[in-house]
Protein backbone atom coordinates (compact mmCIF):
# COMPACT_ATOMS: atom_id res chain seq x y z
CA UNK A 1 0.00 0.00 0.00
CA UNK A 2 1.55 3.33 -1.04
CA UNK A 3 1.41 6.27 1.36
CA UNK A 4 -0.14 8.59 -1.18
CA UNK A 5 -3.13 6.30 -1.82
CA UNK A 6 -4.86 7.77 1.26
CA UNK A 7 -6.26 11.23 0.71
CA UNK A 8 -9.46 11.15 2.78
CA UNK A 9 -10.09 9.60 6.20
CA UNK A 10 -13.19 8.94 8.28
CA UNK A 11 -12.66 9.48 12.02
CA UNK A 12 -15.27 8.02 14.37
CA UNK A 13 -15.50 9.64 17.79
CA UNK A 14 -14.15 12.80 16.16
CA UNK A 15 -15.66 15.16 18.74
CA UNK A 16 -14.08 13.29 21.65
CA UNK A 17 -10.83 13.87 23.49
CA UNK A 18 -8.62 11.58 21.39
CA UNK A 19 -10.65 11.77 18.18
CA UNK A 20 -10.37 15.56 17.82
CA UNK A 21 -6.59 15.39 18.20
CA UNK A 22 -6.49 12.67 15.55
CA UNK A 23 -8.48 14.94 13.23
CA UNK A 24 -5.86 17.67 13.70
CA UNK A 25 -2.95 15.28 13.20
CA UNK A 26 -4.43 14.12 9.88
CA UNK A 27 -5.17 17.67 8.73
CA UNK A 28 -1.60 18.71 9.51
CA UNK A 29 -0.43 15.90 7.21
CA UNK A 30 -2.47 17.27 4.32
CA UNK A 31 -5.34 14.77 4.43
CA UNK A 32 -9.06 15.50 4.18
CA UNK A 33 -11.15 14.32 7.11
CA UNK A 34 -14.78 13.32 7.47
CA UNK A 35 -15.72 13.84 11.12
CA UNK A 36 -18.21 11.21 12.26
CA UNK A 37 -20.33 12.02 15.30
CA UNK A 38 -23.81 11.59 16.70
CA UNK A 39 -24.02 15.24 17.80
CA UNK A 40 -24.49 17.77 15.01
CA UNK A 41 -23.91 20.60 17.50
CA UNK A 42 -20.52 19.27 18.52
CA UNK A 43 -19.61 18.39 14.96
CA UNK A 44 -20.35 21.90 13.74
CA UNK A 45 -18.37 23.35 16.64
CA UNK A 46 -15.40 21.13 15.81
CA UNK A 47 -15.35 22.26 12.18
CA UNK A 48 -16.01 25.93 13.01
CA UNK A 49 -12.95 25.94 15.27
CA UNK A 50 -10.74 25.00 12.29
CA UNK A 51 -11.43 27.66 9.62
CA UNK A 52 -8.01 27.17 8.02
CA UNK A 53 -8.99 23.61 7.11
CA UNK A 54 -12.63 24.20 6.20
CA UNK A 55 -12.11 22.91 2.66
CA UNK A 56 -10.63 19.67 3.99
CA UNK A 57 -13.32 18.96 6.58
CA UNK A 58 -16.76 17.40 6.29
CA UNK A 59 -19.31 16.14 8.79
CA UNK A 60 -21.19 12.83 8.98
CA UNK A 61 -24.01 12.42 11.51
CA UNK A 62 -24.27 8.78 12.52
CA UNK A 63 -26.86 6.72 14.29
CA UNK A 64 -25.74 4.65 17.27
CA UNK A 65 -24.22 1.88 15.18
CA UNK A 66 -23.00 0.06 18.31
CA UNK A 67 -26.38 -0.33 20.01
CA UNK A 68 -27.66 -3.59 18.52
CA UNK A 69 -28.32 -6.14 21.23
CA UNK A 70 -27.09 -9.23 19.38
CA UNK A 71 -23.55 -10.32 20.04
CA UNK A 72 -20.94 -12.10 17.92
CA UNK A 73 -21.75 -15.48 16.47
CA UNK A 74 -21.75 -17.98 19.33
CA UNK A 75 -22.30 -15.21 21.89
CA UNK A 76 -25.91 -14.31 21.27
CA UNK A 77 -26.53 -14.59 17.55
CA UNK A 78 -25.40 -12.72 14.45
CA UNK A 79 -25.26 -8.95 14.35
CA UNK A 80 -28.46 -7.34 13.07
CA UNK A 81 -26.81 -4.97 10.62
CA UNK A 82 -27.16 -6.11 7.03
CA UNK A 83 -25.27 -4.95 3.96
CA UNK A 84 -27.19 -2.20 2.21
CA UNK A 85 -28.90 -0.77 5.29
CA UNK A 86 -26.20 1.84 5.77
CA UNK A 87 -24.72 0.46 9.01
CA UNK A 88 -26.01 3.40 11.02
CA UNK A 89 -24.95 5.87 8.34
CA UNK A 90 -21.42 4.50 8.01
CA UNK A 91 -21.68 3.50 4.35
CA UNK A 92 -22.53 7.05 3.31
CA UNK A 93 -19.92 8.51 5.66
CA UNK A 94 -17.21 6.31 4.09
CA UNK A 95 -17.87 7.61 0.57
CA UNK A 96 -14.56 8.58 -1.00
CA UNK A 97 -12.51 7.52 2.05
CA UNK A 98 -9.46 5.30 1.77
CA UNK A 99 -8.74 5.25 5.50
CA UNK A 100 -10.63 4.98 8.78
CA UNK A 101 -9.56 5.79 12.33
CA UNK A 102 -12.02 4.18 14.72
CA UNK A 103 -11.77 5.96 18.08
CA UNK A 104 -15.36 5.53 19.24
CA UNK A 105 -16.31 2.82 21.71
CA UNK A 106 -18.74 2.66 24.66
CA UNK A 107 -17.40 3.72 28.03
CA UNK A 108 -19.10 3.74 31.40
CA UNK A 109 -18.38 2.47 34.89
CA UNK A 110 -22.01 2.84 35.92
CA UNK A 111 -23.50 -0.38 34.58
CA UNK A 112 -26.37 -2.68 35.43
CA UNK A 113 -25.58 -5.24 32.73
CA UNK A 114 -21.96 -5.59 31.63
CA UNK A 115 -22.77 -7.49 28.47
CA UNK A 116 -25.50 -5.19 27.17
CA UNK A 117 -23.88 -1.91 28.20
CA UNK A 118 -20.19 -2.58 27.51
CA UNK A 119 -19.32 -5.80 25.70
CA UNK A 120 -21.93 -6.00 22.96
CA UNK A 121 -21.90 -2.29 22.02
CA UNK A 122 -18.10 -2.36 21.64
CA UNK A 123 -18.11 -5.55 19.58
CA UNK A 124 -21.07 -4.54 17.43
CA UNK A 125 -19.57 -1.11 16.80
CA UNK A 126 -16.49 -2.75 15.29
CA UNK A 127 -18.61 -5.22 13.35
CA UNK A 128 -20.76 -2.47 11.87
CA UNK A 129 -17.69 -0.51 10.82
CA UNK A 130 -16.08 -3.56 9.24
CA UNK A 131 -19.33 -4.40 7.52
CA UNK A 132 -19.49 -0.94 5.97
CA UNK A 133 -15.84 -1.17 4.93
CA UNK A 134 -16.49 -4.54 3.26
CA UNK A 135 -19.40 -3.34 1.14
CA UNK A 136 -18.93 -3.54 -2.66
CA UNK A 137 -18.75 0.24 -3.02
CA UNK A 138 -16.21 0.78 -0.24
CA UNK A 139 -12.85 2.32 -1.14
CA UNK A 140 -11.36 1.82 2.34
CA UNK A 141 -7.90 0.27 2.34
CA UNK A 142 -6.68 0.71 5.92
CA UNK A 143 -8.31 0.87 9.34
CA UNK A 144 -6.55 2.17 12.45
CA UNK A 145 -8.33 0.98 15.58
CA UNK A 146 -7.99 2.68 18.96
CA UNK A 147 -7.81 -0.18 21.42
CA UNK A 148 -6.36 0.10 24.92
CA UNK A 149 -3.76 -1.21 27.33
CA UNK A 150 -6.87 -2.74 28.91
CA UNK A 151 -6.82 -5.37 26.16
CA UNK A 152 -3.22 -6.26 27.09
CA UNK A 153 -2.97 -6.12 30.88
CA UNK A 154 -2.91 -9.32 32.94
CA UNK A 155 -3.32 -8.26 36.55
CA UNK A 156 -2.72 -11.77 37.88
CA UNK A 157 0.66 -11.79 36.19
CA UNK A 158 2.10 -8.72 37.87
CA UNK A 159 0.18 -9.18 41.10
CA UNK A 160 2.09 -12.43 41.62
CA UNK A 161 5.50 -10.74 41.43
CA UNK A 162 7.27 -10.57 44.77
CA UNK A 163 10.82 -9.52 43.85
CA UNK A 164 12.89 -7.67 41.29
CA UNK A 165 13.74 -10.90 39.53
CA UNK A 166 10.13 -11.20 38.36
CA UNK A 167 10.15 -7.91 36.44
CA UNK A 168 8.75 -8.11 32.91
CA UNK A 169 7.69 -5.81 30.07
CA UNK A 170 4.33 -5.91 28.33
CA UNK A 171 4.61 -5.97 24.54
CA UNK A 172 2.14 -5.98 21.66
CA UNK A 173 2.20 -9.78 21.77
CA UNK A 174 0.45 -9.85 25.14
CA UNK A 175 -3.29 -10.23 25.60
CA UNK A 176 -5.59 -9.84 28.56
CA UNK A 177 -6.56 -13.45 29.49
CA UNK A 178 -10.07 -12.43 30.57
CA UNK A 179 -12.79 -14.69 29.16
CA UNK A 180 -16.00 -13.36 27.66
CA UNK A 181 -18.06 -15.22 30.23
CA UNK A 182 -16.13 -13.68 33.10
CA UNK A 183 -16.33 -10.18 31.61
CA UNK A 184 -20.10 -10.50 31.14
CA UNK A 185 -20.80 -12.01 34.56
CA UNK A 186 -22.98 -9.92 36.91
CA UNK A 187 -20.40 -10.23 39.71
CA UNK A 188 -17.65 -8.69 37.56
CA UNK A 189 -16.86 -5.03 38.21
CA UNK A 190 -17.44 -2.51 35.44
CA UNK A 191 -13.69 -1.77 35.36
CA UNK A 192 -12.90 -5.40 34.51
CA UNK A 193 -15.85 -5.63 32.09
CA UNK A 194 -14.56 -2.54 30.28
CA UNK A 195 -11.21 -4.28 29.81
CA UNK A 196 -13.10 -7.19 28.32
CA UNK A 197 -14.99 -4.91 25.94
CA UNK A 198 -11.72 -3.53 24.58
CA UNK A 199 -10.22 -7.00 24.20
CA UNK A 200 -13.14 -8.57 22.37
CA UNK A 201 -13.78 -5.55 20.14
CA UNK A 202 -10.16 -5.63 19.05
CA UNK A 203 -10.32 -9.41 18.58
CA UNK A 204 -13.31 -8.90 16.30
CA UNK A 205 -11.24 -6.63 14.08
CA UNK A 206 -8.27 -8.98 13.90
CA UNK A 207 -10.56 -11.89 13.11
CA UNK A 208 -11.99 -9.95 10.19
CA UNK A 209 -8.76 -8.91 8.52
CA UNK A 210 -6.83 -12.10 9.23
CA UNK A 211 -9.47 -14.24 7.51
CA UNK A 212 -8.74 -16.99 9.99
CA UNK A 213 -12.19 -18.58 9.99
CA UNK A 214 -12.31 -18.35 13.76
CA UNK A 215 -15.17 -17.52 16.09
CA UNK A 216 -14.84 -13.79 15.39
CA UNK A 217 -15.34 -14.24 11.65
CA UNK A 218 -18.74 -13.03 10.38
CA UNK A 219 -18.25 -11.36 6.98
CA UNK A 220 -17.02 -12.45 3.60
CA UNK A 221 -13.29 -12.27 3.25
CA UNK A 222 -11.97 -8.94 2.13
CA UNK A 223 -8.24 -9.34 1.76
CA UNK A 224 -7.39 -5.80 0.73
CA UNK A 225 -8.42 -4.14 4.03
CA UNK A 226 -5.43 -3.55 6.30
CA UNK A 227 -5.51 -3.10 10.07
CA UNK A 228 -3.22 -1.35 12.55
CA UNK A 229 -4.13 -1.25 16.25
CA UNK A 230 -3.03 1.34 18.83
CA UNK A 231 -3.13 0.40 22.54
CA UNK A 232 -2.62 3.42 24.83
CA UNK A 233 -2.63 3.52 28.65
CA UNK A 234 -3.97 6.57 30.57
CA UNK A 235 -4.13 9.56 28.25
CA UNK A 236 -3.72 13.16 29.39
CA UNK A 237 -3.21 16.53 27.78
CA UNK A 238 -4.88 19.70 26.51
CA UNK A 239 -8.25 19.43 24.79
CA UNK A 240 -9.13 20.47 21.25
CA UNK A 241 -12.64 19.02 21.10
CA UNK A 242 -15.77 21.09 21.89
CA UNK A 243 -15.76 21.76 25.65
CA UNK A 244 -17.94 24.49 27.17
CA UNK A 245 -17.28 23.73 30.81
CA UNK A 246 -15.03 21.80 33.15
CA UNK A 247 -17.83 19.28 33.66
CA UNK A 248 -17.36 18.22 30.02
CA UNK A 249 -13.70 17.28 30.42
CA UNK A 250 -12.78 13.68 29.72
CA UNK A 251 -12.34 11.49 32.77
CA UNK A 252 -8.54 11.26 32.81
CA UNK A 253 -8.10 15.03 32.62
CA UNK A 254 -10.71 15.47 35.35
CA UNK A 255 -8.38 13.51 37.62
CA UNK A 256 -5.57 15.99 37.05
CA UNK A 257 -7.97 18.85 37.64
CA UNK A 258 -9.02 17.20 40.90
CA UNK A 259 -5.36 17.24 41.95
CA UNK A 260 -5.22 20.95 41.22
CA UNK A 261 -8.39 21.59 43.24
CA UNK A 262 -7.04 19.70 46.25
CA UNK A 263 -3.95 21.90 46.09
CA UNK A 264 -6.20 24.96 45.94
CA UNK A 265 -7.93 24.01 49.17
CA UNK A 266 -10.86 21.80 48.26
CA UNK A 267 -11.72 18.96 50.59
CA UNK A 268 -10.67 15.51 49.44
CA UNK A 269 -7.63 13.45 48.62
CA UNK A 270 -5.59 12.90 45.52
CA UNK A 271 -6.78 10.16 43.17
CA UNK A 272 -4.78 6.94 42.99
CA UNK A 273 -3.76 5.55 39.60
CA UNK A 274 -4.33 1.88 38.80
CA UNK A 275 -1.27 1.71 36.53
CA UNK A 276 1.76 4.03 36.34
CA UNK A 277 1.74 4.39 32.55
CA UNK A 278 0.45 7.26 30.44
CA UNK A 279 0.78 9.08 27.13
CA UNK A 280 0.25 12.65 25.98
CA UNK A 281 -2.82 12.81 23.73
CA UNK A 282 -0.87 14.76 21.11
CA UNK A 283 1.68 11.96 20.81
CA UNK A 284 -1.13 9.42 20.65
CA UNK A 285 -2.81 11.32 17.82
CA UNK A 286 0.47 11.46 15.89
CA UNK A 287 0.81 7.70 16.31
CA UNK A 288 -2.66 7.18 14.81
CA UNK A 289 -1.86 9.36 11.83
CA UNK A 290 1.47 7.66 11.15
CA UNK A 291 -0.11 4.23 11.54
CA UNK A 292 -2.53 5.19 8.79
CA UNK A 293 -0.02 6.42 6.21
CA UNK A 294 3.13 4.32 6.77
CA UNK A 295 3.08 1.32 4.43
CA UNK A 296 5.49 -0.78 6.49
CA UNK A 297 3.37 -0.95 9.66
CA UNK A 298 0.39 -2.80 8.20
CA UNK A 299 -0.94 -5.61 10.36
CA UNK A 300 0.87 -4.44 13.49
CA UNK A 301 -0.23 -3.72 17.03
CA UNK A 302 1.45 -0.96 19.04
CA UNK A 303 1.60 0.08 22.66
CA UNK A 304 1.91 3.89 22.62
CA UNK A 305 3.20 4.83 26.07
CA UNK A 306 5.65 7.36 27.47
CA UNK A 307 8.83 5.99 29.07
CA UNK A 308 8.07 8.14 32.14
CA UNK A 309 5.92 6.67 34.87
CA UNK A 310 3.38 8.80 36.68
CA UNK A 311 1.34 9.07 39.82
CA UNK A 312 -1.07 11.75 40.96
CA UNK A 313 1.45 12.62 43.65
CA UNK A 314 3.92 13.49 40.87
CA UNK A 315 1.16 15.48 39.17
CA UNK A 316 0.66 17.40 42.43
CA UNK A 317 4.33 18.32 42.53
CA UNK A 318 4.22 19.49 38.90
CA UNK A 319 1.14 21.62 39.52
CA UNK A 320 2.47 23.03 42.78
CA UNK A 321 5.53 24.43 40.99
CA UNK A 322 3.27 26.55 38.81
CA UNK A 323 2.57 28.82 41.79
CA UNK A 324 6.15 30.03 41.57
CA UNK A 325 5.79 31.13 37.96
CA UNK A 326 2.91 33.56 38.41
CA UNK A 327 0.47 31.51 36.39
CA UNK A 328 -2.58 32.34 38.45
CA UNK A 329 -2.29 30.00 41.42
CA UNK A 330 -2.89 32.54 44.16
CA UNK A 331 -4.16 30.48 47.09
CA UNK A 332 -2.69 27.19 48.14
CA UNK A 333 -3.81 24.84 50.87
CA UNK A 334 -1.57 25.15 53.95
CA UNK A 335 0.71 27.45 51.95
CA UNK A 336 3.57 24.95 52.20
CA UNK A 337 6.16 23.80 49.74
CA UNK A 338 4.95 20.20 49.78
CA UNK A 339 1.72 19.58 47.86
CA UNK A 340 -1.14 18.10 49.83
CA UNK A 341 -1.24 14.34 49.42
CA UNK A 342 1.95 14.37 47.36
CA UNK A 343 3.62 11.83 49.60
CA UNK A 344 2.89 8.18 49.99
CA UNK A 345 1.87 7.36 46.41
CA UNK A 346 4.19 4.55 45.46
CA UNK A 347 4.83 3.89 41.78
CA UNK A 348 4.48 0.28 40.66
CA UNK A 349 7.89 -0.84 39.39
CA UNK A 350 7.09 -4.55 38.96
CA UNK A 351 6.58 -4.35 35.20
CA UNK A 352 7.00 -2.06 32.20
CA UNK A 353 5.41 -1.22 28.85
CA UNK A 354 7.12 -1.35 25.47
CA UNK A 355 6.41 2.11 24.12
CA UNK A 356 9.79 2.24 22.39
CA UNK A 357 8.71 0.13 19.41
CA UNK A 358 5.93 2.56 18.53
CA UNK A 359 8.29 5.51 18.99
CA UNK A 360 10.80 3.96 16.63
CA UNK A 361 8.52 2.52 13.95
CA UNK A 362 5.90 5.31 13.91
CA UNK A 363 8.46 8.11 14.15
CA UNK A 364 6.99 9.85 17.20
CA UNK A 365 8.72 11.54 20.14
CA UNK A 366 7.08 11.39 23.55
CA UNK A 367 6.42 14.58 25.48
CA UNK A 368 7.30 14.82 29.16
CA UNK A 369 4.77 14.58 31.98
CA UNK A 370 5.54 18.08 33.25
CA UNK A 371 4.80 19.67 29.88
CA UNK A 372 1.62 17.65 29.50
CA UNK A 373 0.24 18.55 32.94
CA UNK A 374 1.18 22.22 32.75
CA UNK A 375 -0.42 22.64 29.32
CA UNK A 376 -3.65 21.08 30.52
CA UNK A 377 -3.94 22.96 33.82
CA UNK A 378 -3.30 26.34 32.23
CA UNK A 379 -5.91 25.62 29.58
CA UNK A 380 -8.56 24.44 32.03
CA UNK A 381 -8.03 27.48 34.23
CA UNK A 382 -8.96 29.53 31.19
CA UNK A 383 -12.11 27.45 30.75
CA UNK A 384 -12.96 28.02 34.40
CA UNK A 385 -12.59 31.79 33.97
CA UNK A 386 -14.91 31.74 30.97
CA UNK A 387 -17.61 29.68 32.67
CA UNK A 388 -18.75 32.61 34.79
CA UNK A 389 -19.43 34.62 31.66
CA UNK A 390 -21.73 32.08 30.03
CA UNK A 391 -25.31 33.15 29.36
CA UNK A 392 -27.57 32.43 32.30
CA UNK A 393 -24.68 31.79 34.65
CA UNK A 394 -24.57 33.96 37.78
CA UNK A 395 -20.93 34.85 38.36
CA UNK A 396 -19.65 33.19 41.49
CA UNK A 397 -22.65 30.88 41.84
CA UNK A 398 -21.78 27.22 42.29
CA UNK A 399 -25.29 26.03 41.43
CA UNK A 400 -28.57 27.39 39.99
CA UNK A 401 -30.82 29.49 42.23
CA UNK A 402 -33.57 27.59 44.00
CA UNK A 403 -36.84 28.77 45.59
CA UNK A 404 -35.19 29.40 48.94
CA UNK A 405 -32.61 31.63 47.26
CA UNK A 406 -35.47 33.54 45.60
CA UNK A 407 -37.30 34.20 48.86
CA UNK A 408 -34.16 35.33 50.63
CA UNK A 409 -33.19 37.62 47.75
CA UNK A 410 -36.62 39.29 47.69
CA UNK A 411 -36.66 39.74 51.47
CA UNK A 412 -33.22 41.31 51.47
CA UNK A 413 -34.16 43.66 48.63
CA UNK A 414 -37.41 44.79 50.27
CA UNK A 415 -35.77 45.36 53.63
CA UNK A 416 -32.96 47.28 51.99
CA UNK A 417 -35.35 49.48 50.02
CA UNK A 418 -37.33 50.30 53.14
CA UNK A 419 -34.26 51.07 55.20
CA UNK A 420 -32.54 53.15 52.53
CA UNK A 421 -35.32 55.36 51.29
CA UNK A 422 -38.96 54.70 51.96
CA UNK A 423 -39.20 55.72 55.61
CA UNK A 424 -36.65 58.49 55.16
CA UNK A 425 -38.73 60.01 52.37
CA UNK A 426 -41.80 59.92 54.61
CA UNK A 427 -40.32 62.05 57.41
CA UNK A 428 -38.79 65.51 57.69
CA UNK A 429 -36.34 66.64 60.34
CA UNK A 430 -39.15 67.18 62.86
CA UNK A 431 -40.47 63.66 62.47
CA UNK A 432 -43.72 64.69 60.77
CA UNK A 433 -44.71 63.58 57.25
CA UNK A 434 -42.49 65.54 54.90
CA UNK A 435 -44.36 68.17 52.87
CA UNK A 436 -47.72 66.94 54.15
CA UNK A 437 -48.31 69.09 57.27
CA UNK A 438 -51.13 71.19 55.67
CA UNK A 439 -54.31 72.90 56.89
CA UNK A 440 -56.13 71.76 53.75
CA UNK A 441 -55.51 68.31 52.37
CA UNK A 442 -55.38 67.44 48.71
CA UNK A 443 -59.12 66.74 48.62
CA UNK A 444 -59.85 70.23 49.95
CA UNK A 445 -61.03 69.04 53.35
CA UNK A 446 -60.12 71.20 56.34
CA UNK A 447 -58.40 69.37 59.19
CA UNK A 448 -56.34 70.24 62.18
CA UNK A 449 -52.61 69.77 61.85
CA UNK A 450 -52.84 66.62 63.97
CA UNK A 451 -55.68 65.25 61.84
CA UNK A 452 -53.64 66.03 58.76
CA UNK A 453 -50.71 64.13 60.22
CA UNK A 454 -52.87 61.06 60.80
CA UNK A 455 -54.42 61.28 57.34
CA UNK A 456 -51.09 61.78 55.63
CA UNK A 457 -49.56 58.89 57.57
CA UNK A 458 -52.40 56.61 56.50
CA UNK A 459 -52.05 57.76 52.92
CA UNK A 460 -48.31 57.26 52.95
CA UNK A 461 -48.65 53.79 54.43
CA UNK A 462 -50.93 52.85 51.56
CA UNK A 463 -48.48 54.30 49.04
CA UNK A 464 -45.62 52.51 50.73
CA UNK A 465 -47.42 49.17 50.65
CA UNK A 466 -48.21 49.60 46.96
CA UNK A 467 -44.61 50.53 46.25
CA UNK A 468 -43.31 47.51 48.16
CA UNK A 469 -45.68 45.27 46.23
CA UNK A 470 -44.33 46.64 42.96
CA UNK A 471 -40.78 46.06 44.17
CA UNK A 472 -41.63 42.48 45.12
CA UNK A 473 -43.33 41.80 41.80
CA UNK A 474 -40.36 43.20 39.90
CA UNK A 475 -37.87 41.20 41.92
CA UNK A 476 -39.91 38.04 41.49
CA UNK A 477 -40.01 38.53 37.72
CA UNK A 478 -36.30 39.26 37.52
CA UNK A 479 -35.38 36.35 39.73
CA UNK A 480 -37.65 33.93 37.91
CA UNK A 481 -35.97 34.95 34.67
CA UNK A 482 -32.59 34.27 36.28
CA UNK A 483 -33.79 30.90 37.53
CA UNK A 484 -35.06 29.95 34.10
CA UNK A 485 -31.81 31.00 32.45
CA UNK A 486 -29.75 29.12 35.02
CA UNK A 487 -31.88 26.00 34.81
CA UNK A 488 -31.59 26.09 31.03
CA UNK A 489 -27.82 26.52 31.25
CA UNK A 490 -27.33 23.64 33.65
CA UNK A 491 -29.76 21.44 31.73
CA UNK A 492 -27.78 22.02 28.54
CA UNK A 493 -24.60 21.16 30.39
CA UNK A 494 -26.11 17.94 31.69
CA UNK A 495 -27.47 16.99 28.27
CA UNK A 496 -24.16 17.74 26.58
CA UNK A 497 -22.37 15.61 29.17
CA UNK A 498 -24.73 12.73 28.40
CA UNK A 499 -24.89 12.99 24.63
CA UNK A 500 -22.83 9.87 24.22
CA UNK A 501 -19.76 11.48 22.78
CA UNK A 502 -16.33 9.91 23.33
CA UNK A 503 -14.65 10.10 26.69
CA UNK A 504 -11.03 9.96 27.88
CA UNK A 505 -10.03 7.22 25.46
CA UNK A 506 -12.32 8.33 22.67
CA UNK A 507 -14.98 6.04 24.08
CA UNK A 508 -18.68 6.70 23.89
CA UNK A 509 -20.45 7.09 27.18
Task: Provide the descriptors you would attach to this structure in a database record.
single chain, 7-stranded parallel beta sheet, two-stranded parallel ribbon, 14 helices, 11 strands, 41% helix, globular
Please characterize this protein's 3D structure.
The chain is of the alpha/beta class and 509 residues long. The protein is 41% helix and 9% strand. It has 14 helices and 11 strands. It has helices at residues 17-28, 40-48, 90-93, 114-133, 155-159, 180-184, 190-210, 251-263, 281-293, 312-321, 356-362, 369-387, 403-426, 449-497, and strands at 8-12, 32-37, 57-61, 99-102, 142-146, 168-170, 226-231, 234-236, 278-280, 301-303, 351-353. It has a 7-stranded parallel sheet with strand order 3-2-1-4-5-7-10, with helices on both faces. Strands 6-11 form a two-stranded parallel ribbon. α1 crosses α9 (281-293). The radius of gyration is 31 Å and the shape is globular. The model is unreliable at 69-85, 212-222, 326-343, 391-414, 417-447 and 494-509 (pLDDT under 50).
Short description:
This protein is an alpha/beta fold. 41% of the residues lie in helices and 9% in strands. Strands 3-2-1-4-5-7-10 form a seven-stranded parallel sheet, sandwiched between helices. A two-stranded parallel ribbon has the order 6-11.
Amino acid sequence: METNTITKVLVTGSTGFIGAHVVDALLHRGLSVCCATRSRKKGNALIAARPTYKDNLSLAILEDFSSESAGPEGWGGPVKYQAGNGYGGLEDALHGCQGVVHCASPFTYDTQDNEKELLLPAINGVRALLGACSSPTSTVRRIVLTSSFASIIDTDRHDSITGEEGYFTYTAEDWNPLSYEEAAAPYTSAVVAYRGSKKFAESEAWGFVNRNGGRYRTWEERGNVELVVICPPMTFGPVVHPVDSIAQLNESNKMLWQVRNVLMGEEGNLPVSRVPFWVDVRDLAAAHAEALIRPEVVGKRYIVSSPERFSYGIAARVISKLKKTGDGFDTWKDGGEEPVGGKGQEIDMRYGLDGATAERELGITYKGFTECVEDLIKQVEGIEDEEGEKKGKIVGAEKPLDNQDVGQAITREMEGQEKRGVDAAASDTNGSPKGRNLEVDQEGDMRTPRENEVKEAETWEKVREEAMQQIAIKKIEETQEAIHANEQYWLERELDARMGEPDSTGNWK
